Amino acid sequence: MEFMQNEKMEAVAFLADITSHLNDLNLKLQGKNNTVCELMSAVRAFQRKLEVFKSDLQEGLLYFPKLLEQTKGENRPQNHVAFLEKLIENFKIRFDDFRLGKQVLLYIENPFLVRNVREFSAEAQQIFPWASAASLQSELIDLQENLALKEADCDTPTFWTKMVTAANFPLLHKMALHILTMFGSTYRCESAFSTMNMVKNKYRSRLTNEHLHQCVRLAITPFVPKFKVLATDQRCHFSH
To answer: In 60-163, which ranges are continuous DSSP H helix?
Structure first.
């Protein structure tokens, strides 16, 4: 009876540890401004970590502190390795068919680190068949040798929308915009729907569709008015 109780507590400790790792991944996937490249980088990093976790179960339990505390250093991973193998397989089924290759992801995050232009153009053509391999390679080389762009200090969306212009790099610019505007998560949709539910409550029965649209736009827009400028420009009329 005591042995069965220990096994149950061991299973609980293991699940607590692996759930903690999954929660860490979940936090990285949340937020408004994450690009699909950043999200896929987080997922692929976690897939590699799962392989490390699997090996660690048979060694020192470095990534399973609660399990280590429960087993008191006596490794009994047989019941948990199968769970991790299924989790690894589940991640492969869900994400391994994602079409953005490593070179394309690297090109979005930092195009100056792309070393093999042929491999990059081949991956890009699988996603965008209309793209010319010769033009892709030529534009990427021109971009990598542009000192002004190389020294640009800005985030990824700003780099591709403001710094890399369609006039100088039409193909790279167009392809980057396609990738950056992909919906990497449902966070924005879910947050907008939650905002709409808050605005459209039972106490606002006379709220029209047009007014609701305006309220939701005001609630979810990232734009912040310059209140000091507005107050300075406003002329107050004093009564005599």
So the answer is: 65-71, 78-95, 102-109, 117-127, 133-144, 147-150, 156-158
pLDDT of residue 23: 95
**Pair of tokens at residue 209:** 């569709």
pLDDT in tens, 119-161: 999 989 988 889 899 999 999 999 999 998 988 888 888 899 8
The share of the chain scoring above pLDDT 90, in percent, equals 26
Q: Which residue has the higher pLDDT, 183 or 171?
A: 171
38-47 pLDDT, tens per residue?
888 889 899 9
Q: Is the pTM of this model over 0.90?
A: no
- State how far the alpha carbon of 93 is from the alpha carbons of 54, 184, 229, in Å: 18, 17, 53
User: Please, is 127 exposed, middle or buried when counting C-beta atoms within 10 Å of its C-beta (0-12, 13-18, 19+)?
Assistant: middle
Placement of tokens 């400790």 in the chain = 13
Q: How far is CA 115 from CA 37, 45, 108, 137, 163, in A?
A: 18, 21, 14, 11, 21
Residue 163 to residue 173: CA distance in whole angstroms: 10
Quote the distance between the C-alpha of residue 154 and its chain's center.
18
Q: What is the DSSP annotation of 193-219?
A: HHHHHHHS-TT-TT--HHHHHHHHHHH
Through-space distance between the first and last CA atoms of the chain, rounded to whole angstroms: 91
Work out the angle at residue 197's Cα, subtended by the Cα atoms of residues 196 and 199, and round it to the nearest 5 degrees. 65
